Amino acid sequence: MPRWDAMTDDERPLPRVRVTASTAGRVSRPVTRGFALPGRTADEADEVFSRGLVRAQLRLALGCVAAFLVVAAALTGIIAALPTLGDPTVFAVPLSWLLHAYGFYPLILVFALIYARAAARNERRYRQLTEPEDAE
User: For the whole prediction, is pTM greater than 0.70?
Assistant: First the structure.
């Protein structure tokens, strides 16, 4: 590759150009805090309800994590407290190892389903509180 100063103008690569989207014709919407329903502006009640929804979802998530950790610790404690679980083998692998390796997946699935249903219920309650009165 020839040196830059030895190149003619025709040989030099074109300079890089940054291409950005045009802002012409774009309609800006006011930024609101919280979750506003489509077609409505967020007022103080919407902000209170949305903060309540966020707090409820956070409480639910923390509760599910705490409950999962308690159940997982209990399962581990039971496996450790019963040394006879190491005696039977399945395909030359001790049963206690298999319980540690695969016993937590059903727990994860159960807690995921519980969380998903409860989160959907929280959001349904939020929508019931925030839907306009004239929609009835």
Answer: no
